[in-house]
């Protein structure tokens, strides 16, 4: 796995149009279980199903779509 040293975290509000203000994140922390439809750095949408509480997804994403996202308490890690 990668380097899990992050300098900051920002609460994520899922949106189908608004990307993260700080740009591409280095990971997403999941505080409430569910699915996450993440827009990856290359523009593709990856839906992670049944993500459990406390998961750290080591992905480079620009946004979390509100459509198909049921997970809550998300943090974008930088």
Write the layout of secondary structure elements.
Layout: E1 9-11, E2 27-32, E3 34-40, E4 45-51, E5 55-57, E6 61-65, E7 72-77
Number of strands: 7
Spatial extent as radius of gyration: 11 Å
Broad shape: globular
Spans of at least 5 consecutive residues with low confidence: none
| Largest sheet features | 4 strands, antiparallel
From the N-terminal CA to the C-terminal CA, the straight-line distance is: 16 Å
How many DSSP H or I helices? Answer: 0
The helix/strand order is EEEEEEE
Helix content: under 10%
pLDDT average, as an integer? 96
Share of β-strand residues: over 45%
Class per helix and strand makeup: mainly beta
Strand order in the largest sheet: 1-7-2-5
What do you see in this structure?
- The protein has strands spanning 9-11, 27-32, 34-40, 45-51, 55-57, 61-65, 72-77.
- The protein has no helices and 7 strands.
- 21% of the residues are buried.
- It is globular and about 30 Å long.
- The strands form 2 sheets. It has a 4-stranded antiparallel β-sheet with strand order 1-7-2-5, with no helix packed on it.
- The chain is mostly beta strands and 78 residues long.
Give short descriptive properties of this protein.
78 residues, mainly beta, 4-stranded antiparallel sheet, 3-stranded antiparallel sheet, 0% helix, globular
Briefly say what this structure is.
With 78 residues, the chain is mainly beta.
């Amino acid at each position: 796995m990668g380097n899990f040293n992050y300098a900051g975290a920002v609460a994520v509000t899922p949106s189908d149009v608004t990307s993260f203000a700080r740009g591409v994140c280095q990971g997403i922390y999941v505080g409430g279980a569910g699915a996450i439809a993440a827009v990856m750095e290359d523009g593709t949408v990856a839906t992670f199903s049944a993500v459990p509480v406390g998961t750290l997804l080591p992905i480079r994403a620009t946004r979390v779509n509100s459509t198909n996202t049921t997970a809550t308490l998300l943090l974008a890690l930088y």
